[in-house]
Write a structure and sequence with these properties.
Layout: E1 2-4, H1 11-20, H2 26-35, E2 39-46, E3 49-58, E4 64-71, H3 73-86
Antiparallel strand pairs: 1-2, 2-3, 3-4
Helix pairs in contact: 1-2
Length: about 90
């Protein structure tokens, strides 16, 4: 997992955020994660491709809230197929 700190919006991260919020809000949410010290945005890559992100707001040293979580549709499908084959 990698923390996203760049103030320049990565198009893939923006697309992922649009799955978790309204598309027109994605830029504003991204800005909060990169500007507010209490909020962090993380991404996960598979084979060099960003496939998911999770946004967290830290309330204090012991508590946090997941604000956004998103996974590329193709990865959702891939994991569903893997899960289905295990339950046969």
């Amino acid at each position: 997992m990698k923390e996203i700190t760049s103030t320049v919006v990565n198009p893939t991260i923006k697309k992922l955020l649009s799955y978790a919020t309204l598309e027109e809000k994605a830029d504003g949410e991204y800005k909060k994660y990169t500007c507010l010290p209490s909020q962090k945005l993380y991404s996960i890559e598979i084979n060099g491709e960003t496939v998911s992100c999770i946004g967290v707001e830290f309330l204090n040293s012991k508590a946090a809230v997941i604000k956004h979580i998103a996974v590329l549709p193709k990865e959702r499908e891939r994991n569903r197929k893997q899960h289905d084959s295990l339950s046969l």
